[in-house]
Amino acid sequence: MELLLVFLIGLMHAGGVYMLLRRSMFKMIIGLILLGNGANLLIFLLGRLVKGHPPVMADGMKVFTDIYADPLPQAVILTAIVIGFGLQSFAIILIKKVYKVLETDDLDELNSSEEEI
Amino acid sequence: MINNLTILPIVFQFLAGIILLFCWGKIGIQKTLSILLSLISVGIAIWMFDTTWKQGIQISHAGNWDSPFGISFVSDVFGATMVLLASLSGLAVSMFASGSLRKERIQFGFFPILHYLLMGLMGAFLAGDIFNLYVWFEVVIISSFVLLTLGGKKKQLEGAMKYVSLNLLASSLFLVGIGFIYGLTGTLNFADVALKIAEIPNRGLVNATAGIFFVAFGIKSAIFPLYFWLPAAYHTPPAAVSAIFGGLMTKLGVYSIIRCFTLMFGGDEFLGPLFSVVAGLTILTGGMGALLQKSMNKTFGYLIICHIGFIMAGFGMFTELAIMGAVFYLIHDIVVKTNLFMISGLVLKMNGTENIHELGGMYRNHALLSLLLAIPLFSLVGFPPLSGFWSKIFLIQGGLESREFFLIGAIILGSFLTLWVVGKIWLEVFWKKAENLPKQADGKYFHQMSAANRWLMVFPIFFLASVSLFIGLGAEHIIEVSRKISSDLMDTGPYIQAVLGNQITQP
């Protein structure tokens, strides 16, 4: 399972970087989404995968004696997913607005303010 | 010492944002309330700084969960100083925005978002764990996205596109770094990570993680070679927004670099040379970029990059004296950079352009005002009694101490380039005869505005200029503060002790 996740994370990062290097705004945002999700999976993996051991203590115990799944990475990922969702939806609205105003999807054509002055 | 005062500045800004949201559409009330609330926020920041200075590090644990398990907010002298500076800049920008912004922009919620941005900044300066820092970073960038795009002009959208995409990339890198930190140490609290990361035998993995953080924060703080988004984005929004961005946003990146690389990855043999090389190149590229620009805002954008390099140089040298210089520079830079963008906003309102070849005759027409504007401009260069001078002395002394001659050369050359650029601006904008000013400005001219609005534009510049003067003339106080901060940064023991309390001794 770990090995599968490692390859998946690698693939998502590679795909994300490849999409970022394209010139289209639309592909760029897909690249950013892939990178963000890859990072979330990475935290999940690095928090160690444990199967079938919920972090719940038996009655009358004070400390964990058994192996247990760490709940913290999941809390962290949940927060990161929500934040990422907000940022990505903003970015999608932004590219829609940019497309409407500039009528282009090509990132190289976003330089009119550089030539102005 | 446990004290819930630590979260007060953050909660206060949050409440300020909410109160302002209730006044949606009522422009007059929003302006007054925002200035008033910013004033109270300065009071809170002074109170917090005073408490931290006298009683040592203040900590509050969310929900009374002790660190490293709960989220802690830590106010050490460094954090409290940054909060104080942020609230001062916030006050100035809130006044300047009330005077200069157009009605339509304020109607779309400029002021609430400004206060959310300040909330994020203060949260980041007080965050006690790395994931909490990430969350505050995101609060800051989403607010800055909105401030940057508010108005939706073509050049704004173009700048915002670059800014948004690079910031999202930096955030996802930051998240990858957090994943590695958690995998390596099993904790996210700064103090706990600092203790555990020192014991990891595989230094290569630690250095790789440090590298990821360096790139992520490097993009946010615009260091060489990751700065290209800054000159493309910072000149596009109105001056009030540029001012808060130029003064505080990049400094947030620098603050995070300083916090992480002194506390978590302190004194590493791999990082010292990296800092030095990057700092030197940042100074040189920023300075040379500034030489070529014709627009005042773009020039100041490049100068931001140049002076980020000065701060990084102090950490490249990594002696107590050099860090003291760098911290002094950071304090001076926040005030001056906020002021510079407000000045270029004022010049734009007066003349209808910010192209330095078209401008001219400012001194002839407004002699007193020009003298006022001279203070921040010359503080930036560091003419002797003014604020930039003292920090450079310490930086160069620190460089001689640690024999970093490349950095000394870069600092001197960078200062010279800054002098050249500021001299050019003074010559072109203030002394030259105005011959080819544009006929019609985009919006109202300064002299057509009401007297109250004119005061609201000039007073914040005067206010920050007097803060600059205080930093320069009352340097012994700032030196004392910077010395305390630099000794805290070099010796992180008290910070760790304060955060973790008596848990260090337990197994």
Automatic annotation (TrEMBL), chain A:
Originating species: Mariniradius saccharolyticus AK6
Cited InterPro entries: CPA3_antiporter_subunitC, NUOK/Mnh_C1-like
Location (main, coarse): membrane
Transmembrane segments: 6-21, 28-47, 75-95
Gene Ontology cellular component list: plasma membrane
Name this polypeptide is given: Na(+) H(+) antiporter subunit C
Top-level taxon in the UniProt lineage: Bacteria
Membrane topology designation: Multi-pass membrane protein
Automatic annotation (TrEMBL), chain B:
Source superkingdom: Bacteria
Domain NADH:quinone oxidoreductase/Mrp antiporter transmembrane, first and last residues per copy: 127-418
Location in or out of the cell: Cell membrane; Membrane
GO cellular component: plasma membrane
Mode of membrane association: Multi-pass membrane protein
TM region positions: 6-25, 32-49, 69-96, 108-127, 133-151, 163-185, 205-227, 239-258, 270-292, 299-318, 324-348, 368-386, 406-427, 455-475
Family annotation (Pfam families): Proton_antipo_M
Keyword field: Cell membrane, Membrane, Transmembrane, Transmembrane helix
Sample GO molecular function, one term: NADH dehydrogenase (ubiquinone) activity
One Gene Ontology term from the biological process aspect of the record: ATP synthesis coupled electron transport
Family: Belongs to the CPA3 antiporters (TC 2.A.63) subunit D family.
Name under which the protein is recorded: Na(+) H(+) antiporter subunit D
Organism: Mariniradius saccharolyticus AK6
